[in-house]
Design a protein that fits this description.
2 copies of one chain form a homodimer.
Chain A: E1 3-4, H1 11-17, H2 22-28, E2 30-34, H3 36-44, E3 51-55, H4 62-73, E4 77-81, H5 83-90, E5 98-103, E6 119-124, H6 129-142, E7 147-150, H7 159-165, E8 174-177, H8 179-186, E9 192-196, E10 213-217, H9 226-231, E11 234-236, H10 249-264
Parallel strand pairs in A: 1-4, 3-4, 6-7, 6-10, 7-8, 9-10, 9-11
Antiparallel strand pairs in A: 2-5, 3-5
Helix pairs in contact in A: 1-5, 3-4, 6-7, 6-10
Chain lengths: 266, 266
């Protein structure tokens, strides 16, 4: 049976709200995901929250009922609360119908099976959580094997990244690695490392990609270090006709990934 | 000569800070743009802020000096202030080097010359300011003639949209219109209206685009109304292999726009 919390002052509410903060997430090794769509996506991939919060009026929604049932069956806790408290948990005026507290999960390089997919995404020092989530969502759409985050990237479990991923955080494996271990792992098997660069004459549409293709996108402001570009098997550029000579990192990744997908599908 | 403001309580500071709010922007018909890169981009396209704020330590930066000179020559005002106040104006802990207050500018459908570009972007009920800015940035990169916002879209002059556009707000004309006036204008000349849809079997890579191509992207959550889809000359879909069956709206627009660009460049 779900328990009820109707007081802001309940210490659990503060503890959950604190998960919006990176330091608290790291300590608790838990994170927040919001919204019925994202939690249902998670449930369908077998990920259930340790705690599920929903507002009393949502009690009769069949997807909420399915979540409550599965969370409780898995030993988690379902908690009925008020719209005000849900709104406080989500930090949004427009409260989502449900908020889940998930245990963090992590994939390591050794866990990845590179024969499983033709496209893999690699992002280096990615700083914007919206970009990270959007890249995960693109990864889901192109059937990428995973997203490998190299160097100091934004936390994939931040509220903004989870939200922008629209559930793809639960469907696309995410690995955090430093550059050298990544390169060592990559060179231990087949794989074409393709870097997106401004310093090449090779148009991304004229290059040939060989599966498994690892698409490397550099930092939003600086691109990738020269040494990383030098380690790539291929550098390609996306043509830019405008004045700004720059694309959003998530957009550039998607344009590349869809070109590789089109080639690989024939 | 720049004047100095060093007190938070200065009424001008409050007035400028209020421009973060849509209601105040509408009343003042002015908006904020932040950062040396974006303001320099604006300056290069001939757009100068009515007011330019910079922190005293930036005084010697050559790009800041160029901005101050041009703003004053154009009858605007340059204001030297503290890092704290700049940070208050920008609403960010990490204050940008400069903040500009610009007069709003607007383009109407009648101002557009459709022979000027092969690609035009059309977004319908776009709600996320980051998506709007990112689409403008893509529009700059593909050489789009403009972005036409149809229906109730997010304000292109919001701080988040301007920031995400990385200056493309100043290089890509933006028109706000309702659907009927847009359609009427469109059908008054050549133009292929291409809608991005899930309800079609035509893959975006197998379709043929005819310049000027108008790429229509629907609302982030709902896509476009049926009537809008019916008015399109062509509906295409981007393949999605994942579980979520959805791409970020700015990503989908970019994947489409780059396919059209590749075809048009041969």
């Amino acid at each position: 049976m779900p328990r009820e919390i109707t007081a802001y002052s309940n210490p659990l509410i503060k503890r959950v709200r604190d998960l919006r903060d990176k330091r608290h997430r790291r300590e608790a090794r838990q994170f927040l995901a919001e919204g019925l769509r994202i939690l249902t996506e998670a449930r369908e991939t077998g990920r259930l929250p340790a705690m599920l919060f929903y507002a009393a009026p949502s009690r009769l929604h069949p997807l909420v009922q399915a979540l409550v049932r599965d969370v409780e069956a898995a030993g988690g806790e379902a908690i009925e609360t008020t719209a005000d408290i849900l709104s406080k948990l989500s930090g949004k005026d427009n409260p989502q119908a449900v908020v889940g507290v998930f245990d963090e999960f992590e994939t390591s390089l050794a866990d990845l099976d590179r024969s499983r997919a033709g496209i893999w995404l690699v992002a280096e020092r990615l700083r914007d959580p919206g970009n990270l989530g959007t890249i995960l969502r693109t990864g889901d759409a192109v059937g990428a094997g995973g997203l490998i985050l190299v160097g100091e990237c934004v936390d994939p479990f931040s509220v903004e990244a989870v939200r922008a991923s629209m559930g793809a955080l639960f469907t696309v494996p995410v690995v955090r690695s430093d550059w050298q271990p990544f390169l060592h792992w990559l060179r231990g098997g087949p794989g074409q490392l393709v870097g997106l660069s401004l310093d090449t004459d090779i148009d991304y549409r004229s290059a040939t990609y060989a599966a498994p293709t690892f698409l490397l996108t550099g930092n939003e402001a600086q691109g990738m270090p020269e040494g990383y570009a030098a380690a790539c098997d291929l550098l390609v550029k996306i043509p830019m006709l405008g004045k700004a000579d720059s694309l959003n990192a998530a957009v550039a990744t998607a344009v590349m990934a869809y070109e590789v997908l089109a080639q690989q599908r024939g």
